[in-house]
Amino acid sequence: MSDPKKTSLHAQHAELGASFTDFGGWDMPLKYGSELAEHKAVRATAGLFDLSHMGEVWVEGPDAAKFLNTALAGNMAVMKVGKAKYSVICNEAGGIIDDLITYRRGDEKFLVVPNAGNAPVVATALAERAAGFDVTVTDASAETSLIAVQGPAAVAILHEVVAESAKSLVSDMSYYAADETTVAGIDVLLARTGYTGEDGFELYVPNAQAAELWDALMAAGANHGLIPAGLACRDSLRLEAGMPLYGNELSLEGNPFEANLGPIVSFKKEENFVGREALEAVKAEGAKRVLVGLKGLGRRAGRGGYPVMKDGVQVGVVTSGQPSPTLGYPVAMAYVDPAFAEIGTGLDVDLRGKAEPFEVIALPFYTRAK
To answer: What is the pTM of this model?
Structure first.
């Protein structure tokens, strides 16, 4: 088995005292000190994340929009230049190969961003599905780094490192949008999407300039409460925000409708996208299981893989769960039989033989104040 890959920022993480873990084939910082402190910093001030393990696949050419409408479940052709859209790429059976964000950078130019472990699979699938279309598919993952500033202080931090003329671009950028700009003298693609439930920005930059950009952002954030943040708090933050994680809530065995992602599947578009027939059948028949939020009524947390019970009978399984640092009680996401998915339904999670009470509540668990 090969050693995990290292991002261009590995030396920065090591110098900051990071604990590392293998994630999607990458040696990534799990935490730098206290994962709880990092979580709370993102909620209160800001955290700096290395997301360079994510993929970047460029799709360019006259047929780019039409091609993506056949390759992905969402409608990419209606997206305006400068905007972004969340979607999924499915197999013929409607199983989710990955969830991803696509940015429209021109009339005939798109950037598709898949998750770390799935990046090679998605790049290959897109290249294969491009046959017969006038498009070029270029996997730029190996040459591209991605840094994210997440938290209420994100705008103020970026204002420290952009020109006066670019400050309005930062503060006025809408959610799920992107634009080219210069940060600390470095040309970047700046996006505003996020995976933490907080305001924040993502900066796409060539590997050679990643360390310089990271250091500049760390310095700019010093007076704004910015600290480096690892994968551990990223997971607790996204769970509070009710956002699915591939390998937990999303998989080849699942489909968008059971994961509450039905609204991002477009049956209105004319293109016969991969998985369309299977997903039309799922929509017509109804999902056989439903992803729900669970609030712990006790102190113990459910974890991924734990059975969800009703009157001693298993009716589902936890996909992600842990104590919520922000809310002060255990939260979990779980797939359950649709008969037990209604808000307010009392369920138990089997915590190694002991039934712990939970209640179905609406997702997300946490929503930031606007």
So the answer is: 0.96
